[in-house]
Amino acid sequence: MEKQKQKLIVQAAPYLSHGITAPKAMLDIIYALIPVALLSVWFFGISSLWVIISATLGGVLVEWLFNRERADNPLKDGSAILTGLLLGLTLPAGLPLWMAFLGGVVAIGLGKTVWGGLGNNLFNPALLGRAFLLGNFPIAMTTWPAPIGDAGIFSVYPSTFTWPFMQVATDSVSGATPLNLMKFQHQFTDVGSLFIGNVSGSYGETSALLLLVIGGVLILRRSIDWRIPAALLGSVFVLSLIFFMVDSRLYPNPFFMLFSGGLMFAAVFMATDPVTSPLTPKGAWIFGIGMGAITVLIRLFGGLPEGVMYAVLLMNATVPLIDKISQPRAFGHGLKKDGQ
Amino acid sequence: MHSLSAIFQPILAVLRGDEDVLPSFSHGVHPQEHRAQTENLPIQRAPFGKTYILPLGQHIGAPAKPVVAVGDKVERGTLIAQAGAFVSTALHAPVTGWVKAIEPRRIPSGQLQNAIEIEADPYASQRLPTKAAIPWQNLSLDDFIQHIQNAGIVGLGGAAFPSHVKYALPDGVKIKTIIINGAECEPYLTNDHRLMLERPEATLQGAEIIRQKLQADAVIIGVELNKAHALDALNQVIKAHHYQHITAKALRVKYPQGAEKMLIKSLLDVEVPVNHIPRDIGVLVNNVGTAVAIADYFEFGLPLIERIVTVSGSGVSRPANLIVPIGTRVRELLDFCGGLTDNIKEIVMGGPMMGTPITSLDVPILKGSSGILAFTAVETHKPKEYACIHCGRCLDACPHFLNPARLAKLAKYQAYGEMAKLHAMDCVECGACTFACPSGIPIAHLIRVGKHEIRAKK
Fold first, then answer.
1. Residue B429: left (phi > 0), alpha (psi -120 to 50), or beta?
2. Pairs of residues, one from chain A and one from chain B, whose beta carbons lie less than 8 Å apart
3. Quick check: ipTM above 0.85?
């Protein structure tokens, strides 16, 4: 046999891998968002698609701009697309496109790149972009259009194509969100229609049923940590149940709390962002319960109708601390004498 | 695209039930098994080669001291080096031949180590001299320990810890349970599987000898359920020979089931406290290969001069389970298996999760070498490394409940003191964290480096 020069690879064990890569994990979440996006187009028409695309483009543009010199371009890991999609799905359907685009720019620029890129940011980038928009354009960001109904999927809200910094058309068919109705008119929306999703709100916050199904699939695929949605939803339920039992006319019933607003969407997609949530299992519980408590407090006693976004962002800031105090008990440590 | 089966697999795992009924430890990972290539291949004897290299320090502890000189004629099975200390063991000639050299030779880890090189006598029959069985029943524990040390028997699971050291119990320590490790959790390897299947009598005989000598109450043989035939074989012999104190138990298939402390947790539901060894809680763990080696020694007077090695991987033309004399060069072993394929990428000694990469085919098989794996592009992957995304998969994988992501980050920043505080020294380097990492970070390797630095500072 002829002798061949073979170059052998020498690397440290192990030689096998699970096969899941970071981009694949993100792709999983992106796939999971597609049905949500489709449903929002069904409810709010083609405008919603434009908003999602604008937010994503804004994010991808900044990611490219900051990293164009790098050899390993992080655009390939798909995280910018994911952030843009997540942001887009939390915006009102009638939001002017330039605002959505700006939101995407801020989400990636201030939410991720300045921190050092993927894996280093403290706050959820999509929610940071959303907080920026809400702070700067409070009217546009709280003008929730009613579902389009008979107008047809291809009808566009008049505000969609406004130019930057020109008057936002506010005469569109706007509908108050269920949480607004609760807070300011003291009127509770039927839990059944919340569950299906045919109510005013951002795309992502409309159908609790769809989000529950998607969340379930993601948990089974181990794409998201089940502990965070469990802790968040569980603590919101328990806390609001306590208030409901104290005074059922003043406070909404716990199912209303679960299925209204952005809670479901945040529980499945926002709070579970691995980068900005705790590393440890115990930490995941603390993180989730903290978010649940803040959400309930803001919704019932704060000046805002919805508090999930701030709940997530506030708890994001505590993640390094949570990680520090919630180190897992190492095997064989802290045992009683008999090893049990 | 992701297949549907990937979605339903976790559901099925719960619905099937078999997964959760069997005992196991917490955490761990499920690598693909890759055993089909060799699990049905009966153990064969490889033909004798030309030269044998016997490093003097192939066990944990002090190196052995040669008792032969260059040019000496040696018979197969005769002593060539004696134990250099208590934590050390003897070495025997694997073939009849001449001592060609006693000088440093390359060992699989890449270092040079003093070794005895033996040139086989091409005309020798290589038949072992017939010896009477050694009546182990009458031996005192001290004599038994002496016999084991003189037989050169070490743990054959991979660590090569001299077995007799485990049997030397301090005063007042009693071993209640002996665990025979038949988990064989490393993918690809089937040598323990075949051994239990083909030689269940010897496995149980060895286990019974250890039990009686240590006066232990019970022996449990832990076998992962993917070796159900081996389990059946053991159970039949237990029944036929009325081994009252021995039971064979099925375990869930999970890596690293065969790690000593994991196996104890799986079978006895007890955690060995940190900084303690199993005997502190009255448990002793031996590999099935070790049990068979002990049985063979007392039955035939055969010291540890050969072991069973699985040769597998897509880069090997003819995979096999072979009886290999210690000291056989990897090259000769692979030649017998039809040689390597042209597209070979990587050669590993041991299992695919904890094995060592080898850079030369002239390194010898050691007492602790359980497999030779030759990988082509089919298996080899050099993952692209991404930033840690804090997903926590490594925490869910770590059988010692450490925080591998944090430890790896600290290792990168050379914060070794901080690593020690987070129990880096507890790490058994099983590699489950690296296996699970979606960002392709060599977590286990980084922790290994950190442990090395922590040890160096002490």
1. left
2. 189
3. no
